[in-house]
Each structure stands twice: as C-alpha cells, then as structure tokens.
Amino acid sequence: MPELPEVETVRAGLAGRVVGRRVATAEVLHPRAVRRQPGGAAELVARVAGRTVAAAVRRGKYLWLNLGEPGEPGELTEHDLPQEALVAHLGMSGQLLVQEPDGSRRHDADAAAFVADGPARDLTATLPPTLVRTVPLSTAHLRVRLTFDDGGQLWFVDQRTFGHVLVAGTVPTADGGPGGHGSAAPVLPAPVAHIARDLLDPALDRAALVRRTRARRTEVKRALLDQTLVSGVGNIYADEALWRARLHGSRPTDRLSPARVRELLDAATDVMREALAVGGTSFDALYVDVEGAAGYFGRSLNAYGREGLPCPRCGRPIRREQFMNRSSFSCPGCQRRARA
DNA sequence: AAAGGGACCTGGCTGC
DNA sequence: TGCAGCCAGGTCCCTT
To answer: Which one has a higher pLDDT value, A111 or A15?
Structure first.
C-alpha cells in the first residue's frame, strides 16, 4: 500500500522524467478515476492539454504536477506561483508509470533503485537518464493516460480504483511555507489544503504537532492515521512506529507525556526514512504472497503482518486485533494497553 | 465541533 | 471443482 515512502519514490521518478514535458492529450479510460474532478473527464482533459509540467510535488500521500500556463510552455519559473496542478492520489493500488516513445517502459522501481544507491539519498536529485529498466506492465487497469508532445506517456494504473486524479486550482499554504516536497512555491492544490504537513517536511512544526496531538481526545493510532493532524502515515507504518515506541495504539493521546509523543513521532519518522532509503516496496505486497505481508519492506517489519511470530525484542508472539475496521499488529509484552 | 463508523472497490485466497 | 464470502485499507462523508 502506498504510504509516504512509496509516494515519494514515485514523485522522485516523476521529477526526473516528466518535468519539462508538455502534455498533448489526455484520455480517461475509467470514470471512477476522475470522480473528484468537477466537470468529469471532459474537464480534466480540457484543463491538462497543452500544459507543461513545471514540478512534481508531494505532501503526505498526495502528489501533484504543477502546470505551466497554457500557451507558454516551459515559461513557468521557480519564482512564479503555479495556478493549477494535476493532483493524484494512489489510494490502495495506484501506480504512475512513464512509457517512453521508443517503447521502453519506466517504472517507479527505477526510482527505488536510485534512491537506494543514489548519492547521499538526495530526495531532490533528478534521476539519471541512463537509469532505464524494462518491467512487465499490464494495461488491464489503465485508468488515465497522458501523452506528451514527444510521444511519451504517463499512465495512471489502479486496480482497486481507490485512487484518483484531478486538475485543481492552487491556494496559499496556511503557514507560508512550501506547499510540499519538490517545490518551494508556497501554494498547494485546493483539494490538498486540508492535509497536514508530513514528518519528512522540513517546514513541519514538530512542537506544535506534539501539542496538537496531546490536545486530541482519541486513541494514539487513530491520531497517527489522521491526515489532517500529520500526513503520510498509513496502517503499516503506524503499527511499526507504535511498536518501536512501545505504545499500544489504543492509548489515549491526552494521557501521553510530550516526551512520549515526541518518541512516537521520531519512530514514525525513522521507519519511513528507512523505507524510503530502500525505495518502499509496498506495491509488491499486493502481488507477492509470502507469509502474509512479508516481502513488504524486506526484513524490516517488526510487527505488521507478523501475527503469531515472535516479537524481535522480547520474543512473545505478535497479536492481531481489529481497529478502525483494519488489522492492527502489536506485541503484548512491549506494548501494553491503557489502563481502564 | 470533534470523534467515530461505514461506504467505496477488486482480486486473491479460504473453506465448504 | 466451483463458488460464496472474507480480507486488504485510504479517504470521504455522514451521524452523533
């Protein structure tokens, strides 16, 4: 499942491949993929055609392509504020794939390889053009296709159709900082304005986040998953962060000390940084059947998907519980429930 | 107003 | 073997 590290891997790939290219045409092959687009498919096609991609930006699990003004291809500079963006959310199973005019296919796995081996793991670095790998690819779930002037294409592929794309206008950020990772412009698409900054965002006010978290009257896992509080964390990284911080997800946020909240946020930050360093492999979890969720994030998962397996810290079998209609994995020894 | 729960999806897997 | 039912979960929307 794409959470922050996976979406960032995709964003880095787009930054290296589609920025600077001009969209010639767009096709919507499944209406549900554009269900959040006012005006529907026709509107999206009309608003994206003729626009040049100025930047690939991400906040949490949302990513977007800033669009240059129509009729002025490539004229949008870093000093201009983008007025519109093509927004994408991958949902559960979405992928953004670049197909080159010569028929070669580029996949986000390329970006993963680069992030893993790249110099200083610089997230802003563009990808070397030599890094091209052909991967098997199915058009069975192709939902939206952009074709660039040079014949290259950007595909939005999504099996479970929880993802979506739309073109939207931008609004200023609430704090005046950059809208997201990948652009310094202090704007972000209106449909993303309610999404909080994520844990890898340099403009994140961590002290304020600790205060806001403790002000919530809810369970701590629910808070971690609330994208309006802090973004980018999904079910998998939430469980891993809670395990590292030795907290059970049901603990009330307002009874945690500031130090404990900081510890948890640091754990979530660390686990996502580590996943990003190996490119995030959660897409494979859908297709690879190895010991439940094993195969995802390699050997690094300590709790998620490990029901019955020994806790790497204390050896007690990891337990599985239902929470928010999802599975939660935790160690009964290291992660004690809150007292009643 | 904040918090919590259900709906939306598809395909692989399980069990009868 | 076939098939019904379960399960995965991110986000929006509605109710309380």
So the answer is: A15
8 A C-beta contact, residue A186 and residue A172: yes
Of residues A160, A316, A326, A337, which has the active-site annotation? A326
Which fold, A206-330?
Helicase, Ruva Protein; domain 3 (1.10.8)
Name the catalytic one among A3, A6, A84, A240: A3
As a rounded value in angstroms, the CA-to-C1' distance for A131 and B4 is 46
Domain residue ranges of chain A, discontinuous segments joined by +: 4-192, 206-330
Q: In what order do the strands lie in the sheet with A62-67?
A: A53-59, A62-67, A84-89, A164-172, A187-189
Active site residue A2: yes
Q: Is A61 a catalytic residue?
A: yes
The answer to whether the pTM exceeds 0.85 is yes
pLDDT digits (tens, 9 = 90+) for A287-306: 332 222 233 454 578 998 88
Q: Which nucleotide is closest, CA of A228 to its C1'?
A: C11
Q: What is the distance in angstroms measured between the alpha-carbon CA of A197 and the sugar C1' of B13?
A: 37
CATH 3.30.2130.10 fits A4-192, yes or no: no
Q: Please report how the helices A206-215 and A258-277 are oriented relative to each other, as an axis angle in degrees rounded to 10.
A: 120
Distance CA A40, CA A282 (A): 30
- Taking the C-alpha atoms of residue A121 and residue A99, their distance in angstroms, rounded to an integer, is 25
User: CA–C1' distance A203–B12 (Å)?
Assistant: 41
